[in-house]
């Protein structure tokens, strides 16, 4: 019985290590030409969920060419959500994996939204090539470009998204990590409670 508990404790530790990844949600065009939040600081292994509002989209770009898609060379993210019309009226979210610590800039490619300030980014510097500098450079661009097809992420409905968020934590506004236990783990704990064992989980 002790061996079982020790093995389970080891399994729990492995699970909890994996669940340190966070899910960040960015709304795209909710009530104006804005990404909310405008910038964020995800870690490698985190997931960013873009929730599109009509009729917006999100395209990753580079600082040096605002409102144009990034080339995708090297470690920088290169993604495009596809048009809003592919999201089942916003029910499907565009989900991107964070795979590097490099700054990632993005914009809405619809009409002149990018030039009008609809830009955002993650892990941007707080001065120099910051979000304000990207927005003011974007304002001078003659036209924005849209990639031909979805790239660099997945369009997921809520049930598909649940399986992503089940293995990750949702960061709370206060900054305290709130960890969501995978259902298999909940089952293990329930199972052991039935057997009269108590498992303590340390974070
Ligand atoms: C990735 O982005 C950063 C910041 O914009 C840039 O300095 C770097 O050259 C880019 N890397 C590649 C491989 O494009
Ligand atoms: C993101 O990560 C998930 C889980 O590891 C993987 O299944 C998916 O293919 C990745 N998506 C992209 C676009 O790389």
CATH superfamily membership of the largest domain, which one? Answer: Cupredoxins -  blue copper proteins
Helix-strand makeup class: alpha+beta
What's the number of helices?
Answer: 4
Please indicate the percent range of residues in DSSP E strands (runs of 2 or more).
Answer: 15-25%
What gap, in angstroms, lies between the N and C termini? Answer: 24 Å
Q: Which stretches are poorly predicted, pLDDT < 50 over at least 5 residues?
A: 172-203
SSE series: HEEEEEEEEEHEHEEH
Provide the number of structural domains. Answer: 2
Please give the largest β-sheet.
Answer: 5 strands, mixed
CATH level 1 class label of the largest domain: Mainly Beta
The coarse overall form would be globular
CATH topology of the largest domain: Immunoglobulin-like
- Proper CATH architecture of the largest domain: Sandwich
Give the total of beta strands.
12
Question: Helicity level, as a percent range?
Answer: 10-25%
Heterogens? 2-acetamido-2-deoxy-beta-D-glucopyranose
* Order of strands in the sheet with most strands: 2-1-4-7-10
Rg measurement, Å: 20 Å
Could you tell me the mean pLDDT?
80
GO molecular function, one term: electron transfer activity
Organism: Periconia macrospinosa
Protein name: Blue (type 1) copper domain-containing protein
Keywords: Copper, Metal-binding, Signal
């Amino acid at each position: 019985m002790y061996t079982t508990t020790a093995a389970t404790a080891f399994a729990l530790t492995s699970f909890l290590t994996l669940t340190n990844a966070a899910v960040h949600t960015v709304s795209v065009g909710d009530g104006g030409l804005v990404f909310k939040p405008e910038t964020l600081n995800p870690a490698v292994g985190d997931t960013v969920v873009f929730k599109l509002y009509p009729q917006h989209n999100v395209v990753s770009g580079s600082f040096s060419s605002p409102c144009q898609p990034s080339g995708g060379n090297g470690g920088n993210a290169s993604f495009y959500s596809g048009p809003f019309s592919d999201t089942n009226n916003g029910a499907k979210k565009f989900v991107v994996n964070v795979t590097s610590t490099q700054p990632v800039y993005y914009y809405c490619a619809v009409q002149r939204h990018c030039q009008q300030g609809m830009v955002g980014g993650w892990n941007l510097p707080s001065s120099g090539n910051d979000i304000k500098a990207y927005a003011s450079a974007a304002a001078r661009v003659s036209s924005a470009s849209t990639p031909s097809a979805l790239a660099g992420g997945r369009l997921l409905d809520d049930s598909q998204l649940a399986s992503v968020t089940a293995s990750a934590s949702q960061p709370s506004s206060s900054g305290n990590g709130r960890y969501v236990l995978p259902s298999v783990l909940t089952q293990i704990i329930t199972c052991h409670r039935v057997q009269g064992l108590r498992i303590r989980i340390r974070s």
